[in-house]
Write a structure and sequence with these properties.
The protein is of the alpha+beta class. The protein is built from three helices and nine strands. Bound molecules: zinc ion.
Length: 154
């Protein structure tokens, strides 16, 4: 029993130590699954390697119909059209996601601390969420249009 406890403590301290030393690796360890076999190389680069599409390149910037935005990889419903707003940034932007649609992690790339969000169902990267305070929710989900599929109501 004593040795079990000692081993447990050893394991615990090792875990703590590795978390201190490699928090970046642990945070990046999100399981991503490619489900849609028709994804383009550019889509895969964004979804798997956290790349970003060029601003103003997504036709979804102009999308104003009523409906839902789904994950282009797994089809999960992520945003309602009612949450979409024009942020002026050139990327499709939303004030809030549907409940449980995303999981977040801290992204330290480019020397910035940003909150990255990825699909809760398939794990692929979608964009970053900012606390801009200019919307009712104080949030701005800055999405890559290439990761989204819009399905109009009806
Ligand atoms: Zn997904």
């Amino acid at each position: 029993m004593k040795s079990f406890r000692r081993n447990f403590l050893k394991l615990l301290s090792l875990t703590c130590l590795s978390t201190l030393l490699f928090p970046y690796n642990l945070l990046r360890a999100v399981t991503k699954k490619i489900i849609n076999p028709n994804l383009t190389e550019k889509q895969k680069k964004i979804m798997l390697k956290e790349d970003t599409e060029r601003p103003y390149s997504s036709p979804l910037n102009q999308e104003k119909r009523e409906g839902f935005f789904h994950c282009a990889n797994c089809g999960a419903k992520l945003f309602a059209s009612t949450a979409k707003f024009d942020s002026g940034t050139g990327w499709p932007s939303f004030t809030e996601s549907l409940p449980g649609a995303f999981k977040t992690k801290i992204d330290y790339s480019f020397g910035m601390k940003r909150v990255e969000y990825h699909c809760a169902k398939c794990g692929v990267h979608h964009g970053h969420v900012f606390d801009d305070g200019s919307t009712s929710t104080q949030k701005r989900f800055c999405s890559n249009g290439l990761c989204l599929i819009f399905k109009p109501k009806n």
